[in-house]
Amino acid sequence: MKFVDEFRDPAAARALVAAIRDLADGGGDGGQVFKFMEVCGGHTHTIYRHGIEHLLPPSVELVHGPGCPVCVIPMGRVDDAMWLAEKPDTIFTSFGDMMRVPGSRGSLLEAKARGADVRFVYSPLDSLRIAIENPDKHVVFFAVGFETTAPSTAVTLVRAKDLGVTNFSVFCNHVTIVPPIKAILDSPDLRLDGFLGPGHVSTVVGNRPYRFVTEVYRKPIVVAGFEPLDILASVHMLLAQIREGRCEVENQYSRVVPEEGNPQAIALLSQVFELRPHFEWRGLGFISQSALKLNDDYAEFDAELRFDMPGIRVADPKACQCGEVLKGVIKPWECKVFGTACTPETPIGTCMVSPEGACAAYYNFGRLHRETAMMVGQRSELPVLTK
Amino acid sequence: MTSHAGTRPATAEEREDRVLERITAFRKRRPRLIDEVITLAHGAGGKSSAALVDAVFLEAFRNPELEQMGDGAVLTLPSGERLAFSTDSFVVSPLQFPGGSIGHLAVHGTINDLAVSGAKPQWLSAAFVIQEGFAIAKLKEIVADMATAAREAGVSLVTGDTKVVPKGAADGMYITTAGVGVIPAGRELSAQKVRPGDKLVLSGTLGDHGMAVMMARGDMGIDADIHSDTAPVHELVDLVLAAAPSTRWMRDPTRGGLGTICNELAQDSGLAVILDEASLPVLPMVLGACDMLGIDPLYVANEGKFVAVVPADEAEAAVAALRSHPLGAAAVIVGEIVEQPEGVVALRTAFGGSRIVDMLVGDPLPRIC
Question: Percentage helix, strand, coil, to 5, in chain A?
Answer without folding.
Answer: 40, 20, 40
